[in-house]
Amino acid sequence: MLAVPGVYRTCTWSLRRAGFPSSFLRRSSTAKHVSALPPKLLERARILSAEHDQLSAKLADDFDAKTAERAGEIFRVAAAFKQYEKAKAALSELESLLKSNDAEMRELAQEDLNDTNTQLSDSSRELSVALTPKHPFADMPCLIEVVPGPGGTEGRFFADTVFKMYQAYCENKGFRSRVVKYESSDSIGAKGSEGEIALQEAVLEVLDEGSYAHFRGEAGMHRVQRVPATETKGRTHTSAVAVWVLPSFPENSTSSSASEWDNPESDFYIDPTDVKSEKMRASGAGGQHVNKTESAIRLTHIPTGITVSMQDSRSQHTNRESAWKVLRSRIAQKRREEREEVARNLRSSVLAQSQLTRGDKIRTYNYGQDRCTDHRAGVDFHNLPDVLRGGPTLGKVMEAVHTYLAESDIQALIADEAAAAIASTKAKNGK
Amino acid sequence: MPRLPPSIFWRARREISPVASLLLPVCRTLQSTANELRWIRDHVHRTPSVIPAGIRIWQLCEERSRGVPLQYLLKTQPFGPLEILCRKGVLIPRQETESYTFHLSSILSSSSSSSSSSSPLTILDLCTGTGCIPLLLLCCSQKSSSHFSCTGIDISARAISLAKQNLSHNLALIPSASSSIQFIRGDIFSTKFTSEIYAQHLPDAAEIDVLTANPPYISPSDFRSQTARSVRHYEPRLALVPDSVPSEVSKKYGCREEDVFYARILEIAGDLKPKRVVLEVAGWEQAVRVVEMAQAQRDTRGTDYKVIEIWRDDVHGVRDAGESTEIWGQRIRVKGEGDGRVVYLSRLLD
């Protein structure tokens, strides 16, 4: 992928026409791949592959659900490892042929060498992806929360745009989505440049399983640079919108996870006694004497201080259920983040690369330059209207982020292995 | 009610919508005004009509500003997962009713799972109105796989026809309802009420498991001074104030005017001998009076309620604080938060 498509597209074409070798073109940093696998990873792959062979031999004799499940889990690693071994064997054979005296032989080997090299790097990449532990929430549906950053109404208007973008994206991609909360701020009358309303907070639920893995990379600060509708002097303003992606609970799944939030071990478990539930309505007479329409519910999780308020529906029952859903997701995400923080501290000695946290900006939408930049993947995309419509360009941006995330996960894994190795050698030396 | 400052009207006009200032006197707060306007808009956009949407929104806001209950304008009220149709002349289901019906359903499902009897639970709902209580009980029973057979009785023909409509309206959520629920017009003050009920509508020798009622319970003076304007002017007095009962009948019971329905229902309960009785009341004082009436039956008719509880406004999903009180030497458990809302009587020790 070109680092800067669009702007230089015409230039690169003219270069190509002029016979400019394509190897001189700068490629996006995301295209680089992990070619050399660290020995620790290879070691683990070998062990897992051996285990898989053993298990499949056992399964051939008598079928056992538990064994089959484990075999299924490590199947990908085993297959990738076999591919890798094959490519490696082929490479060593070719190398020996290269040293042969026969000139014709050498030529043939040279031809095959390139293919085998790409095969090797492909399979090593596949292997490292297979070895990367799957994110625990990866198979879950998700909630996408859009909250405007601090500042004026401009951020709120853009929050509405971002929310609509994800809604449209889900529609285009065929994800089932549902608006859980869509709350505008006090100044409801005012309209932004494209009929946006000032958003206070909005939550979109994507019901498809596995959507957490799909949208996980969208979490972070989204920055906008544009001339607001209210600006009279034509100055460009910068504001920010926070997007949080939370794992949500499948509504009526039959798997074991359905009962998971009743299980105190689960990330989603909330002790009901920790939650204060308030109905936000005037006190006074009740029952037949009055006819209340207020249905707002506010839940406060006392240990963490997280509050969720919900007043979208006329039904208090629906509001309460939505509020519980959002609260559970927020708490699960928080617990997960705390654990990841601990893991990050452990590996920071090995991995110098700065990790992105909640506060970092991840993406910029620049209206003036018709540009959408993802800062992590280091890619620029043009055709901003298509991005904001949730079109294929947004899909490309998200793909680039997926590649980035997969790579950083692998690097983290390698760093973890190295950290573990250092710790074990230290322990040995200590003895 | 405190006067609203003019500035809040300006804010409603400027920040919400010009029509919002119409709603403000009824809704009282900006947040609640914004919500009601949004629901009105949603309703208008969901129901197509030849009249332009803007005019319909304005008309609805105008009617609402005169105090017409929102539920009559939008024609529905959510009640748990159900959508209950509302029409002029029938009482709108209240949130408190929703809360205690959920609580009752959780009690029933836990007791039916422990007894594991296959025969369906018979539920009799007096003064059923929209039919919301039996419908919600039935809806909750779908999950717990316990079988209910419900009968709803009301004196108003409008209420009975609306209850039947509600049954067909919510059939998607409660598919078993058409066979397990019936709504019948009947006057509970008629002297032949219990014999007629048995003769015509209940299966032979059926034991009634639960008797529920949300009868009119507001005294005429409270109706004038304590009720909200929209309730006083637009909801049926028949469902709110028990003064439709002939005075010689109410004199017979020798109780306060607003308690006459409870006297009659407890009398019926003495004949039908239901296992549990759930009565909605106006507040703490009335709850205590109803408990005393129930206890008095022990001496006069030998009806012994082993468990007596008073439930407050919010009882479902609220942690039990272990509150209790003592009336006539019997310990009464008090559950929930808010004002006294329900008197729960049970012959079973559970």
Automatic annotation (TrEMBL), chain A:
Q: Locate the transmembrane regions by residue number.
A: none
Prokaryotic-type class I peptide chain release factors domain location:
281-297
Q: Name one GO cellular component term.
A: mitochondrion
Q: Name one GO biological process term.
A: mitochondrial translation
Q: Which UniProt keywords apply?
A: Coiled coil, Methylation, Protein biosynthesis
User: Which ranges of the sequence are coiled-coil?
Assistant: 77-126
Read off the InterPro entries from this record: PCRF (IPR005139), Pep_chain_release_fac_I (IPR000352), Pep_chain_release_fac_I_sf (IPR045853), Prokaryotic/Mito_RF (IPR050057)
Q: Spell out the Pfam families in the cross-references.
A: PCRF (PF03462), RF-1 (PF00472)
- UniProt superkingdom: Eukaryota
Recall the GO molecular function terms of this protein's record: translation release factor activity
UniProt-listed Gene3D superfamilies:
3.30.160.20, 3.30.70.1660, 6.10.140.1950
Q: Which family does it belong to?
A: Belongs to the prokaryotic/mitochondrial release factor family.
What protein name does the entry list? Peptide chain release factor 1, mitochondrial
Q: Which organism is it from?
A: Cladorrhinum samala
TrEMBL record, chain B:
Is Zinc among the key words of this record? no
Which keywords annotate this record?
A: Methyltransferase, S-adenosyl-L-methionine, Transferase
- Cellular component annotations (GO), alphabetically ordered: mitochondrion
Decide whether keyword Membrane is in the record: no
Give one GO molecular function term: protein methyltransferase activity
| Superkingdom, taxonomy of origin | Eukaryota
Q: What does the record list as GO biological process? A: methylation
UniProt cross-references to InterPro entries, sorted A to Z = HemK-like, N5-glutamine_MTase, SAM-dependent_MTases_sf
Q: What is this protein called?
A: S-adenosyl-L-methionine-dependent methyltransferase
- Species name: Cladorrhinum samala
